[in-house]
Model the fold of this input.
Amino acid sequence: MATNISKMFVGALHKIAAQPWVYDLIQRAAGQRKCIELVRKTVATLPAQTVVDVGGGTGNFREVWPANCRYVCLDLEMPKLLSFRAKVPDGLAVLSDGSRMSLASGSADVVTCIAVTHHLSGALLDRVMDEAFRVLRAGGRIVLFDPVVNRERWIGQMLWRLDRGAYPRTAEELREKLERRFRVTHWERFAVYHEYALGIGTKLASD
Done:
């Protein structure tokens, strides 16, 4: 009985957290500003005329890219895309599945997958990585950034219990997924409340 009540409570929290303004508030409280600044520094030198943000939500990571780039916020949840358009009226919002992107092959300089992989099963993540590979031009980069499992961080364990994502992974598991398709050119781990992994993979010209 207690277990069922706990599941119902967490389920209710997930529904509330799906509301765009609540989602943004939670992200800020969880240390998103520090994450944004780290990503900004890491990608500062990447060529980025066209950026596809898979699972872009309300577009909070738009600011890490040049103002004049073609930024595509791709997400499955229309309320979040509408919130993005409210903040960025001329932004490109695409309602699409990251495993079946409605984008041309070789059309992007950068594909980002930020705080998304823990929502994806292994098979679905593989398909998303395949699609990222397809839409990237030769020499294009994928930016992979996500909280990872570290059982020694008790606060991280508490956050995982409240997270909507059902597929948390270790940093090693996440890197292995990246290496299947791309040459890893950057990899680091850091902690705010969660521990995070940040990786960049390059699509080689010969691929």
